[in-house]
Amino acid sequence: MQRDLSKFTHGTYDVLIVGGGINGAAIAHMAALNGLKVALLEKGDFASGTSSKSTKLIHGGLRYLETFDFDLVRESLRERAFLLRDAPHLVKPLSFIVPVYRGDRKPLWMMRLGVWLYDRLAGKYTIGLPAGQAGKHRFIPRDELIGLMPGLKEEGLLGGVSYYDAQMDDARLVLENVLSAQVHGAHAANYVEVRSFLKKDGQAAGVLAFDTVSGREFEIFARKVVCAVGPWTNVLMREEEGNVPPLVRTTKGIHVVYPGKISDHALLIPTSKDKRVFFIIPWMGNSLIGTTDTDYTADPDAVAADQEDIDYLFRELNRVFPEGTFRKEQIIAVFAGLRPLVHREGEPAKISRNHVIKEAYSGIIYVMGGKYTTYRKIAEDCLRVILPSRKPVDTRAGFPVFGSGEITESAQEVAKENGVNTGVVRYLMDLYGTRYKDVLRLTQNNPALKEPLCACSPAIKAQVVYAIETEMAVKDEDIIKRRLSLVYRPCRSGQCVQEIRQRIG
Ligand SMILES: Cc1cc2nc3c(=O)[nH]c(=O)nc-3n(C[C@H](O)[C@H](O)[C@H](O)COP(=O)(O)OP(=O)(O)OC[C@H]3O[C@@H](n4cnc5c(N)ncnc54)[C@H](O)[C@@H]3O)c2cc1C
């Protein structure tokens, strides 16, 4: 995928999508799959907004049972099954444990009922595990739970429940949707900002775009314009319609990455005060801990975690782990994102995660709300608005991303053939799916690319070349944060960053 802006100025697109987060990427993918001439523009890097700052779960959301959002949970559980099928290298089943203490807001019987109902709502879309059996909920007696989650506070612990959901690599799932869109003929570019809309007879007819790399401004024409800009929706809508009421309500969520993993299971912990839950999830050998949910009204570009957010997470951690188990000075990384919720009053945690697609008088289509998990459904609903008189291709039967498909080769054989270590091949297969071959192909003429990038991860040098040549990485942070996720691994030497800077330079 090459960043070639010259092609955007030839002719008129059927649809131009603003915003390269998961929703924009999936809409572009689906529109191109339906034979439309598609353009996708992202002002930063693909997935640089909320879509790389999520909890990285493909889930129904056990928590939404409390707000009786059964339709949303059912829909998400169905989408979870589709994603496990359509992006098997990026979306993997994960077991969750919920410990219950004496005096908890939700007693043990309620948690048992909750996970039972959760699996019932999944119906035939219950998670399938590699061993062939379905991932079902169960009660966990106290002693077994202590064994499964070493270090957990034992005082007042009554037992717990476990259930299954799925975990994903959010930034790469966006990227693979962009790459798939491109395979179906879409034109996509990162670092191109939409500054305003072009109009003809009062109707949107394209955009005025600004290439933030060259500083050049240019016009792009399209019959339909879709704004999938998530937390930036109010900003773009006001550019178009003046000071109208907000369409989205942005709430901030932060995560910290902590060294080491507590267990192979994820932990869901109901919070003490604000009727929320937070997670400790095994993530690349470390633990992803989050999240928060607080209103945020400032510039979406300036969102960041503050001390209060981190203190909140650590306060809640200290409720279920003995004081001192987690220490703030050991944190590897912190990141903050904004939920683009459909605007409603009330406590943030209680606002539905439903999505809404609205066509303005100007013909501009705004995509709001939703969950990462439901991106296929959001794209499908958006396509019905773009093409009201046509039935879109049925993607319930399959909406595969770039690297999906069955890998039939054994990692050991591939390792032997290519002169690399088996662990590296397994890691490449997990990250790129069937496209791991494209990465290894780069090493055929240049064996030096088989060398490790750095001691902090299994990555090899070929991946940096691949990120630049095929995955449109423009800046070093595109590779560090989103193509190779190095930001989640502690690095002592900084060799990986040096190598990436050299190559990208
Ligand atoms: C803390 C947190 C945890 C979450 N965890 C989960 C989870 O585990 N599972 C789940 O299902 N959902 C989760 N969600 C929700 C999910 O992440 C979001 O619903 C989803 O990522 C929103 O995607 P988007 O494409 O709408 O927005 P974004 O990813 O923010 O994409 C919008 C893009 O538009 C671009 N843009 C803005 N203005 C312009 C412009 N003028 N020109 C060009 N481009 C522009 C931005 O740069 C941005 O990349 C979480 C959300 C948060 C905040």
Protein architecture, described:
By secondary structure, this protein is of the alpha+beta class. The chain folds into three domains: 168 residues, FAD/NAD(P)-binding domain (3-Layer(bba) Sandwich); 169 residues, D-Amino Acid Oxidase, subunit A, domain 2 (D-Amino Acid Oxidase, Chain A, domain 2, 2-Layer Sandwich); 94 residues, Helicase, Ruva Protein, domain 3, CATH 1.10.8. It is built from 14 helices and 18 strands. The strands form two sheets. Strands 3, 4, 5, 6, 11, 12, 13, 14, 15 and 16 form a ten-stranded mixed β-sheet that branches. The chain is globular, with a radius of gyration of 23 Å. The mean pLDDT is 94.
Give the name of the CATH superfamily of the largest domain. Answer: D-Amino Acid Oxidase, subunit A, domain 2
Number of domains: 3
The fraction of residues in strands falls at: 15-25%
Q: Label the CATH architecture of the largest domain.
A: 2-Layer Sandwich
Largest sheet: 10 strands, mixed
Number of helices, where a helix is a run of at least 4 consecutive DSSP H or I residues: 14
Distance between the termini: 18 Å
What is the element layout, followed by pairings?
Elements (H helix, E strand, L loop, with lengths): L11 E7 L3 H12 L4 E4 L15 E2 L11 H17 L4 E11 L6 H15 L15 E4 H7 L8 E12 L1 H14 L3 E3 L2 E9 L2 E9 L4 E12 L5 H9 L6 E11 L7 E5 L6 E7 L2 E5 L3 E2 L11 H14 L12 E10 L12 E5 L5 E5 L5 H12 L24 H8 L3 H11 L3 H6 L20 H8 L6 H8 L11 H10 L1
Helix pairs in contact: 1-5, 1-8, 9-10
The structure holds flavin-adenine dinucleotide (FAD).
